[in-house]
Design brief:
284 residues, alpha/beta, 7 strands, Sc_DH/Rdtase_CS, oxidoreductase activity, acting on CH-OH group of donors, SDR_fam, SDR family oxidoreductase, oxidoreductase
C-alpha cells in the first residue's frame, strides 16, 4: 500500500493555487547560495506564479536576472512571486493570459522586451493535466486543450522569442518523468511531455547555428499546485511515495537544474534533459 506523504487535500481549479496548499511548497529558495551567474540578464518564465516556476524565478533573481512571469489567472500567487523577486533587488513583470493563444505569446515576449530591453532566457514551464481512467474518457476538447497548453505554447513562445535569443540565448523546457515511464491515467499529458523531449532535442540541433542552447528538465513527483488540482484527496496524500526517496520533491530542489542550464556552467550542453526525480533511474 502507498504510504501517506502529505495531508489529504484537493482543489477544483486547474492549474491550482499555491496559497491554498497545506503545507505550502518550498519555493522561496531561502538557502540557495547565489553567485551572480545571471547578472544583468532577463528571463521569461511561464507558470512562474507558483511551484517550480516560482522557485526558478526566485533563483534567477538571486543570480542577478530580471524576471517576467507568465501565468493564467492565479493573481495572488503571482503577486507573491513578484514580491519574492523584488526582495532580491530585481525587477519582475507579471503577465496574465493563456499561453495556448499564439497572439498572447507574442504580446508577452513584446512586453518583456519593452520592459527590460532584452530577453536572454526562455523557460517553457507551464502545463495542465486532467487524469482519466480510460482513453475512452478523453474528450476531443481535453486532448486539444492539453496539447495547446503543454506543447503548442512552446512553439508559439519560442517563435516569438527566437529573434531576441540569437547569439547567446538559452531555452529551458519542462518535460516530466511521465515522458519516460508513462502514466496510465495521464495519457494525453504524458504524450505532450514526450513531445517536449523530441522538441528539445530537435530544436537544440536547429538553434545551435544561431547561438542558442536548448535543454530540458524532467521533474519527478514535485509538490506543486498542479497535484491537488489534478488528483483526489487520497492520491494527493500519497504523492511521491513510489519513488526511491519515498517523498515528493520540493520546487527548491528542482530550480537549481534550471539555473545550471541557463548559465555558462552548462556551456557545453544542448539537447539534454536533467532528471530531478527522487532517485528513479530513467534511461534517456
Amino acid at each position: 500500500m502507498p504510504e501517506q506523504t502529505l495531508p489529504r487535500q484537493h482543489q477544483d481549479h486547474q492549474p491550482g493555487s499555491e496559497a491554498a496548499m497545506t503545507p505550502r511548497p518550498q519555493s522561496a529558495m531561502r538557502d540557495y547560495p547565489a553567485a551572480g551567474k545571471l547578472r544583468g540578464q532577463t528571463a521569461l518564465i511561464t507558470g512562474g506564479d507558483s511551484g517550480i516556476g516560482r522557485a526558478v524565478a526566485v533563483a534567477y533573481a538571486k543570480e542577478g536576472a530580471d524576471v517576467v512571469i507568465v501565468y493564467l489567472d492565479e493573481t495572488q500567487d503571482a503577486q507573491e512571486t513578484r514580491r519574492l523577486v523584488e526582495a532580491e533587488g530585481r525587477r519582475c513583470l507579471a503577465l496574465a493570459g493563456d499561453i495556448a493563444d499564439q497572439a498572447f505569446c507574442r504580446k508577452a515576449v513584446e512586453h518583456a522586451v519593452e520592459a527590460f530591453g532584452r530577453l536572454d532566457i526562455l523557460v517553457n514551464n507551464a502545463a495542465q493535466q486532467y487524469p482519466q481512467d480510460s482513453i475512452l474518457d478523453i474528450t476531443r476538447q481535453q486532448l486539444e486543450k492539453t496539447f495547446a497548453t503543454n506543447i503548442f505554447s512552446m512553439f508559439y513562445l519560442t517563435q516569438a522569442a527566437y529573434p531576441y535569443l540569437k547569439n547567446g540565448g538559452r531555452i529551458v523546457n519542462t518535460t516530466s518523468i511521465t515522458a519516460y515511464r508513462g502514466s496510465p491515467q495521464l495519457l494525453d499529458y504524458a504524450s505532450t511531455k514526450g513531445a517536449i523531449v523530441a522538441f528539445t532535442r530537435s530544436l537544440s540541433q536547429a538553434a545551435l547555428e544561431d547561438g542558442i542552447r536548448v535543454n530540458a528538465v524532467a521533474p519527478g513527483p514535485i509538490w506543486t499546485p498542479l497535484i491537488p488540482a489534478s488528483f483526489d484527496e487520497e492520491r494527493t496524500s500519497q504523492h511521491g511515495s513510489s519513488v526511491p526517496m519515498k517523498r515528493p520533491g520540493q520546487p527548491d530542489e528542482v530550480a537549481p537544474s534550471y539555473v545550471f542550464l541557463a548559465c555558462d556552467d552548462s556551456s557545453y550542453m544542448s539537447g539534454q534533459v536533467l532528471h530531478p526525480n527522487g532517485g528513479e533511474v530513467i534511461n534517456g
